[in-house]
Amino acid sequence: MESQEGSSGSQLHVVMFPWLAFGHITPFVQLSNKLASHGVQISFLSAPVNIQRISSSLSSSPLIKIIPVHIPAVDGLPPGLGCTADMSPALADLLKVALDKMQPQIESLLIDLEPHIVFIDFVQHWFPSIASPLIRYQNFPFRSLRSCLRSLLLTNVSKQCENCLTLLLLKSCDEMEGPYLDYISKIYGKPVLLTGPLVPEPPIDKLEEKWEKWLQKFPAKSVVFCSFGSETFLQDEQIKELVLGLEQTGLPFIAVLNFVPDGGGDSNVKLKIAFPIGFAERVQDRGMVHTGWVQQQLILAHDSVGCYVCHAGLSSVIEAFMNDCQLVLLPQRGDQFLNSKLVSGDLEAGVQVTRDDEHGHFNEEDLCTSLLIMGNGKDFLLKKYIQDSFITNFVAEMKRIVN
């Protein structure tokens, strides 16, 4: 028998079409899982190369269907690529050009699918003519006038695009950003719907043995986990300051560091070059440095991990909260700076590392000091009934809009 929650959204069909970067795709996957559990039908569009990874994170609900989209040929863009994680910044720019060529394909899909609502986060100039109603899903919070203006400027790239938006959907909630959400609605002249912070479900797989064995050597909440995601990269000089700061704390740590995919050599070799002289030998008993993908949620959930140093991507921040990890924030670009100000300022739930005003660089002392201060988590994120209520309310609002 279908649950009451499921029947409440059974007539809704939405299309998800996030920008082809996993920092954008992941929140759409999380939202798809939440909506499907409330009876909403999901059609998820992405490039073929992303489908296996997306499938591994989506629920097995029959209401979710992944639909591959073809990436048009562009001079200089190798065939078979469809995700910025595999690209240099120059190639990622060419992917945007390819996206501009996708109008006929997307239009045909939408005609066939007949969704009630389309969710996007990377507005193309041709969308107004093919999609209505259209929801723009923002995967970042709005903390201040500066962030509001940034969002407005993004929309101003096409006023036409602004007129096509039925409303804005934000990955946020009143508990986190209440004073700013009304302002966003006013400045756009559009309703604002909230998904809540989309706390992910606990992973069902187990932590790899090498990490489990290493982590269990240390007391509860004593290990620092440091990671900046798969698409944020530190310069060599900042890597040196980071690892020296971790060393200076005297705490055990795991640091995950990645490099721009440019075909220019092995990442492990690049990592060794970036290390300070003698660093690896000095920390060999209490420090691990890794390049590549790791089981981030499972590492954060381990009893030994107590602090998370990250780039302030909102999904990473939420994962820290739900695992009761202290947050030390080193934003690198875009909305990460706004997220960091929200968490360290309004929420008082983390510490932002001090940097110089001229270049935005930090040094080992700045990082070490921040690690030894730390902050507090937000308890409301750990209460499942509150998370469920965000989605229940959101589905009800969508039904009201399409009816």
Automatic annotation (TrEMBL):
Q: Where in this chain does the entry annotate a coiled-coil region?
A: none
InterPro entries, per this entry?
A: UDP-glycosyltransf_plant (IPR050481), UDP_glucos_trans (IPR002213), UDP_glycos_trans_CS (IPR035595)
| Family per record | Belongs to the UDP-glycosyltransferase family.
**Which Gene3D superfamilies does this entry report, sorted A to Z?**
Glycogen Phosphorylase B
Record key words, sorted: Glycosyltransferase, Transferase
EC number(s) for this protein?
Answer: 2.4.1.-
* Keyword Nuclease annotated: no
Q: Name one GO molecular function term.
A: UDP-glucosyltransferase activity
Q: Which Pfam families match?
A: UDPGT (PF00201)
What is the protein named? Glycosyltransferase
